[in-house]
Structure formats: C-alpha cells, structure tokens
Amino acid sequence: MASGCALRGGCPSDYGAVVIAVICFFVLLSRSVLPCLIHKAPRTNSSSFWIPVIQVFSSFNLLFSIVMSVNLLQFKSQHWRRYCYLWAVWVEGPLGFGLLMSCRITQAFQLYFIFVKKRLPPVKSYVFLPLVLLPWIFGAAIIHARKPLSEECHLGLQWTFPVAGLHALYVLALVAFTRAIRHVEFRFDELRDLWKGILVSGASVVIWVTAFVLNEIVTDISWLQVASRFVLLVTGGVLVVVFFSISSNQPLLSQISLKKKDNVEFQRMSLALGIPDSGLLFRKEEFRPVDPSEPLDKLLLNKRFRQSLMEFADSCYAGETLHFYEEVYEHGKIPEGDSIRRIYMARHIMEKFIVAGAEMEVNLSHKTRQEILTTQDLTHPDLFKNALNEVMQLIKTNLVRDYWSSIYFIKFKEEETMDKEGWSFSPPRMSSVQGSDDPFYQEHMSKSPTSRCSSPG
C-alpha cells in the first residue's frame, strides 16, 4: 500500500504539477482575454461570447478537480474528503472535461449546418450544448448513486474503464462531425483547427486515461501514484491551453498577431474574404459630382458620397442603416457560385445587423427579420432584398433629407470644388470582424464625434 506523501499528498512533484497547472491556466486567461482587449471586441449575447467563457470555466474546473480529487496537496484537515464525489465525479466530469469537449462539438455542429446544409442550425447553441452534455450528467448521477469511490477517491477497476470510455466517446463524436465537413473549403482554417483539436485532445486523452487508470487501479506502488497524478494534472493543463488556443470559434481573431500593429486587411469582412474593391476610397479615384435630385440608390453607388453620408449618420448615432447598406452591397459582389464566401458574408451581416440585440441592429419589420433568420438557404441572392428595401426607405425619410442641410454636405461640396483630381481624407470608418457565433463576431465600432441632427433617424 502506498504511504507517506504518495498517500497524503504534498510530494515535491505534486507542488511542481500545481505550479505548472496554475501557469497553464493563466496562459489560457491571457489568450482568451488579451486579444479581445487589444482589438476592442465587444461583449455579445451570442455563443461567440459565452462558448469561450464556458471553455475557460470548464478548464478551471478540470484542473482544480484533479488537484482536489487525487490529493495532490497535503491538507491538514480531511474535511475535503467529504466532498470527494463533488470533485472527482461532478466537477471533473460534467463540469470539466465533458463541458470542454461539448463546447467544441457544439462548434463543429454549427459549422456543419452553416456550411454543409447552408442554413442556420435548427437547435440553438444554448440548447444543443446541454443535450450533448447529458451522457456525462447521467453517468455522474449513476456513480453518485452507487457510491463506488474509496476513501482516497479512487474508483476501482469496475468503474475506471467505463469512465475512460466516456472520455473517448466525446473525442469520437468530434471526429464524426469533423469528417462531415471535411470537404468544405473554409476560408479561415476552421477545418484544420478542428483536426488539430482532435489530434491534441486524442493524444491528451490517451496519456490522461493511462495515468488515470494507473492512479485509480495501482494504489499500492508509491512512485506510480506520485508519477500518475503528476502526469494527470500536467496533461490536463497542456490540454486546456492548446485546446483553447486553436479555437475555431474566432477564426479571424486567431489570425491577428498581438505583435502586429498593421491589421488593416482584417478590418472588414469583405477584405478578409478577398472581395474586390471593398468600399475603400483611394486618393486617385475619379471624383464624380453629386446631384441631390438623383435617386438615392444611384447616389449611394458613389463611394465618396456614401462615405460622407455615413459619417453624418454616425454623428447622429444612426449609422447602422448605412453600414448595413455597405455590407449588403459588398455581399452582392460575391458570385452566386461562390457559396462559401456568400455564407461567411451572410452570417457576418446577420450577426451584426439582423439578430435581436445585435451590435448595430437595424430597424426591420418582424416578418422581414424572421424571413432572414429562418432562411433555408444562406446563399440565396435575394436573402437581404426585403431588408434592404426597408432600410433604404428609412434612409430616404430621415438621413438624406437632413444631410443636404448639414455641415457634412457643405464639406463634401467644398472638397469637390477644391480637389477634382485627388481627395485627402481621414481613413474611413470600417466595420471590424472578429469571427462570430459559429463562427463569427464583430468588433464594436467607435462612435464618431457627435453633431446636431434635426432627425436622429
């Protein structure tokens, strides 16, 4: 029978493993928080926010439960053993490894429906994830009811292999979803990241389960007890860091290096997708006169006028309509046969402008909004036609009428008069992309200085 620190905990290697686990968790926090802070990504209500938060939560549970359940630290009080089933069964299982893998399976499920079925998933993420977690919950409930744990929180041979099989089952489920989308030509390496996640999780599970089995079954060899729990915690720490670092939930954000200062190519979804002439103004671009009597749809084809009107709308805190028009205009440039890029752009627009509570939600009728959100074809060329018609009516009745008498139009006319051959201007405000719910979300656009508007739009 194991004795000394191998039984009570507190061996030098135990403290070393705890230090490594703490470092891994802080690395995980930095990787999850710093990119959002540096690139000023907003908090959203979509799964683009809460799935990464759940991953961090489950990672902490996994590491902390290992520390508590395998007795890595030597506690003077033994009251913690009363909560053996809490640490070893519930926190380590459904709230730890099970929850971590369920998040990745949920992401793969979303990618499958969006890019293979070309429609939104029939089940919301906040419903699908608990459903995926149910086997873990049932398993934990059965173990808790049968109470097979020893005084040292060991399961024994009868229960160890079924628990190990449950770990492997979730890896296989992730493999199944990933195989279903292997033929999709993703633009942001989501498939590669999923395969990396499978490779890392698969290798970690093999090492982890081996150490877990040895720790649970071979309880009479002291050095093996010490070594197996060291491997358990260190492997768990490496798993959570690497697994989160290659998250397919934020493909664009993962491509932005924290060391690079020039990230202009990722400031618009249209640029990231390689859509030509994506609404940017160039100094040598031909200056076209603007006639207020022309139809609005024709005026908006003039990029300089569109930019000036957008700045005016932003100053009135009503710029979402112009930004929506801009994004839909870029969406229309994508060939109908290019289904992948059309899906990326459509999802970007829906997450930013259409869904309730979106970053720049536009004022649409309930019927039009639901037509978009329940579409059976994300690549349909007329997906945003009705919404665009409603938005154009809002622009006509509010923004354009006030724009003609605003300082922005006066400035526009002065620039037209002073510089017919080139135009110097501050960089245009551009909508940012950070890869949202499954798999896109957008960076919040800072408000431009306010100005007086007779109609807030």
Descriptive account of the structure:
With 457 residues, the chain is an all-alpha fold. 60% of the residues lie in helices and 0% in strands. Helix 3 (47-69) crosses helix 4 (84-91), helix 3 (47-69) packs antiparallel against helix 5 and helix 8 runs antiparallel to helix 9.
How many strands, which pairing sense, and closed or not: the largest β-sheet? none
Name the beta content range.
under 5%
What is the rounded Rg?
Answer: 27 Å
Beta-strand segment tally: 0
Helicity level: 55-70%
> What sequence of helices (H) and strands (E) makes up the elements?
HHHHHHHHHHHHHHHHHH
**Rounded mean pLDDT score:** 76
How is the secondary structure organized here?
Elements: H1 5-8, H2 12-38, H3 47-69, H4 84-91, H5 93-115, H6 125-146, H7 157-180, H8 190-217, H9 222-245, H10 251-255, H11 269-272, H12 296-299, H13 303-315, H14 320-331, H15 339-354, H16 366-373, H17 385-403, H18 407-418
Give a concise summary:
60% of the residues lie in helices and 0% in strands. With 457 residues, the chain is mostly helical. The longest helix is centred in the middle third of the chain and has 28 residues, at 190-217.
What are the salient characteristics of this protein?
457 residues, elongated, mainly alpha, single chain
